[in-house]
Every structure is written in structure tokens, then in C-alpha cells.
Amino acid sequence: MERLISLVYISSERSPFSAKELDELLANSRERNKVNGITGVMLYASGSFMQYLEGPKTAVQQTFERIKADRRHFGIMELICMDIPKREFKDWSMGFTTKEYPGFDEIKLEYALATAQPEMPHSPSHASLLLQNFWATNQAA
């Protein structure tokens, strides 16, 4: 079995996404992720995305290459890419939340992020802290 990795990146939209475009992006991501064995969460606020992907190394890397080639966003920056012992978002083909779009149960996200247990300085929960910080910063905006 191929080893699991997690990858966290941030990016900015080239032009504002409508609610319909966000719905389509999310539906397409969920469908592809199920096929490729990828789980994770995507946060969107004030024109910026932060996404946490986890799954088989090859699938995550191929997904990230496809994301980098997507001309709808720019300034894509990989923050973390590392081996993980288990999934943090095993039940989510792609959890999603945004302050502009009421499409996700935020309590679930807060619970999942709050229950991640730190194991080492760059453990999967370090990625969860990045997600929490992104969300908290953009909630205030």
C-alpha cells in the first residue's frame, strides 16, 4: 500500500468566485477526490483558499499539480507536505467552509481541528493549526 501524505497550500482567486462557481468547484473536487482516495478540507475567505489534502502520495501530488495548472487561481504556495500515519479527515472527500458561503457545518470543522493531537513540531496537527489560523484571521476580516 502506498504511504499516506498530507499537503497544505494557499492560493488566491484571479477573479471572484460566485456561489454557483464555488458549488461546482466543490462538487468536482469531491468527485475526483473520491475516485483518487483523497480526503481533506478547503477553506475560502476574502478571495483566498487554504486546502489540506491527504491520501496516497501519488494521488495527492497529481492533484496538487492539477491545482497548480488551474488558471482560476494564482500565488499558489505549498506550506506543508509530509508523511502522515493516518488521516485527520477520513470521512470528508472535501470538507468546505467559507464566511461568504454557508455550505458547511462549521461546528464539525472546529471539532476536527480542535481534536487533532500534536505529535511533533511538524505533525499533521501542525497543518490543522495553519487551517485554524487561516480561518480565525479571515473571520475577523
Sum up the structure in keywords:
Alpha-Beta Plaits; 4 helices; five-stranded mixed β-sheet; 5 strands; 141 residues; alpha+beta
What does this structure look like?
- With 141 residues, this protein is of the alpha+beta class.
- The chain has a single domain, classed as Alpha-Beta Plaits (2-Layer Sandwich), CATH 3.30.70.100.
- The chain has a 5-stranded mixed β-sheet, sandwiched between helices.
- About 18% of the residues have low confidence.
Number of strands: 5
Strand content: 25-35%
CATH class descriptor: Alpha Beta
Number of individual domains = 1
Give the ordered list of helices and strands: EHEEHEEHH
- Fraction of residues in helix: 40-55%
Annotation field: number of helices? 4
Structural class: alpha+beta
- Describe the largest sheet: 5 strands, mixed
CATH architecture: 2-Layer Sandwich
**Uncertain residue segments:** 100-124
User: If you average the pLDDT, what whole number results?
Assistant: 76
CATH topology: Alpha-Beta Plaits
Rg:
14 Å
Give the strand order of the largest sheet, numbering strands 1, 2, ... along the chain: 4-1-3-2-5
Overall body shape: globular
N/C terminus separation: 43 Å
Draw up the topology in text:
Elements: E1 4-13, H1 19-36, E2 39-45, E3 48-56, H2 57-69, E4 73-83, E5 95-98, H3 106-114, H4 124-140
